[in-house]
Design a protein that fits this description.
297 residues; alpha/beta; 13 helices; 10 strands; globular
C-alpha cells in the first residue's frame, strides 16, 4: 500500500470498524510522524502502521512509532526477530506478514502476536514461491497457534468467508482500498485499477524484490530484458528509483510501476472506505446466511 494508505485512508477504515493501517514504506520519517499525528486527530479508534523491515531509516521509524504511542504495528519484508521484542516491551501489538509456512513458523518463534499469510494473488511485493491464498492459509493454520489473518485476493465478503472457512481468524485487504475516495493514489491509477481484468497483472522482478504489476510500457521493458537474459544489475538499472511513486502517486500509467492484486478484476467502482467496509460485512453475512440454508450446513 505504498503511496496509497496515508492518514485519510487509515482513519476512514478505523472509523468504519476496520483496522486502518498507515503504509510507512513510501514515507520519510518526518512524513510518517505527520501522518500518525493526523490519524490520531481523525479517529479515536485503533489504527496501526505497516513497516517494511528493509526500510533504510528503520531505527528512526521505530523511535517515532514508540514516541507517538502507536500500539499496533504490522511488519513485513524482513526478519521480525530483530525488532519484535523491543516493540512488545513497549506495549505494541505486532503482526508480521509472510508468504510461506517456513516464515510463518519463524515469525511465531520470534514472538509476534499475529501472522498475516499473504498469497500469490496479492498486489505489490510478494512471495517468490507463488503459493496461492487458497492453499497457503490452511497450511499455515496447521502450523501456528497465534491468530492468523489472510491476505491476497480478498476484496469481498464472500472472499472473507472463504478465508475464514480455510482457518483464518480475519483478513487483511489492500487492493480494494486503492480504489477508495480516501486513497492517496493518483486518480489515473484508480481508474486504471477499475479497467484491470484477469490476466492483466503479473508477478515479476523476482531477482530484486518480487512485485505484481499491471502490464504497461514499463512492464514490457522488463519482459524484454528477461527475453535477453538480462543480469540483476540491468534489471535494477531499468527499475531505477521511485518507479512506484511515478505510477501510483504521480499517475504515469506507461512508465510508472503500477502495483495491484489479481483481485482488481473484481473492482468496478471508487467508493468511500467506510462504504467498502460496510459492503464487505454485508456480503459476508449474506454469504454466511446462504451457506447456512444449504442442507447439511
Amino acid at each position: 500500500m505504498v503511496w496509497v494508505s496515508g492518514h485519510k485512508l487509515a482513519s476512514a477504515v478505523s472509523n468504519a470498524g476496520g483496522l486502518g493501517l498507515i503504509g510507512a514504506g513510501s514515507m520519510y520519517p518526518d512524513v510518517l510522524r505527520e501522518h500518525i499525528r493526523k490519524c490520531k486527530k481523525a479517529t479515536i479508534k485503533p489504527f496501526g502502521v505497516n513497516i517494511p523491515l528493509f526500510y533504510p531509516d528503520l531505527e528512526e521509524i521505530l523511535d517515532i512509532i514508540l514516541d507517538e504511542g502507536v500500539k499496533i504495528v504490522f511488519t513485513s519484508a524482513g526478519n521480525p526477530k530483530l525488532h519484535t521484542k523491543r516493540l512488545k516491551d513497549n506495549g505494541v501489538c505486532v503482526a508480521h506478514v509472510v508468504s510461506s509456512v517456513k516464515f510463518a513458523r519463524k515469525a511465531q518463534e520470534s514472538g509476534v502476536d499475529a501472522i498475516v499469510a499473504e498469497g500469490f494473488e496479492a498486489g505489490g511485493h510478494n512471495g517468490r514461491e507463488e503459493t496461492t491464498t487458497f492453499t497457503l492459509i490452511p497450511m499455515v493454520r496447521r502450523e501456528i497457534e497465534v491468530p492468523l489473518l489472510a491476505a491476497g485476493g480478498i476484496a469481498s465478503g464472500r472472499g472473507m468467508l472463504a478465508a475464514m472457512a480455510l482457518g483464518a481468524d480475519g483478513i487483511q485487504v489492500g487492493s480494494r482500498f486503492v480504489a477508495s475516495t480516501e486513497s492517496s493514489a493518483h486518480a489515473n491509477f484508480k481508474e486504471k485499477v477499475l479497467m484491470t481484468q484477469d490476466g492483466d497483472t503479473h508477478l515479476t522482478l523476482k531477482e530484486l524484490t518480487p512485485v505484481r504489476l499491471i502490464k504497461n510500457s514499463f512492464y514490457k521493458k522488463v519482459q524484454e530484458l528477461y527475453d535477453k537474459n538480462a543480469s540483476k544489475e540491468e534489471l535494477s538499472a531499468l527499475l531505477g528509483r521511485a518507479r512506484a511513486k511515478l505510477g501510483m502517486f504521480e499517475g504515469d500509467l506507461e512508465e510508472g510501476e503500477l502495483e495491484i492484486g489479481q483481485i482488481a478484476g473484481l473492482i468496478d467502482a471508487i467508493k468511500p472506505a467506510g462504504e467498502i467496509v460496510s459492503d464487505l460485512m454485508k456480503e459476508f453475512k449474506e454469504a454466511q446466511s446462504q451457506l447456512c440454508s444449504i442442507p447439511g450446513f
